[in-house]
Amino acid sequence: MRERTLGIGFIGAGFIAQVAHLPAFLRHPRVRGKAMADARPGLRAAVARAHGLADAATPRAVLDDPAIQAVVICV
Predict the structure, then answer these.
(1) Is pLDDT at 1 greater than 90 in this prediction?
(2) pLDDT at 3
(3) Are 40 and 57 in contact (CB under 8 A)?
(4) Most CB contacts within 10 A, which of 4, 7, 36, 70?
(5) How do residues 9-33 score in pLDDT, each as one tens digit?
(6) d(CA 3, CA 23)
(7) How far apart are CA 75 and CA 18, in angstroms?
(8) Which residue, 39, 40, 34, is CA-closest to 63?
(9) What are the C-alpha distances in Å from 45 to residues 10, 28, 54?
């Protein structure tokens, strides 16, 4: 049986997201980080790039992405 992966999007790129939520979720072998949304464009882009995530301009873009099955809200 093939193990399925879970595409996860993140809303919120603050300190706790960076040091706790993102590393914890992204180190799981069946999780694929897909996108990051944050109201601060510079921070969003930097965190997305650092973790290999798409830079989503808005939370709605994360919620509407068909490749994302779960969303972690870190605000």
Answers:
(1) no
(2) 80
(3) no
(4) 36
(5) 999 999 999 999 999 999 999 999 9
(6) 21
(7) 12
(8) 34
(9) 13, 23, 8
Q: What amino acid is encoded at 10 in this protein?
A: F
Classify the C-alpha dihedral 9-21-54-34 as positive or negative: negative
Q: Which residues contact 69 (CB under 8 A, 6 or more apart)?
A: 6, 7, 8
Say how far apart CA 39 and CA 31 lie, in whole Å: 24
Q: Report CA torsion sign: 22, 25, 26, 32.
A: negative
Could you tell me where the beta strands, DSSP code E, fall in 1-75?
6-11, 31-37, 54-56, 70-73
The two three-digit tokens of residue 3, written as one number: 């193990």
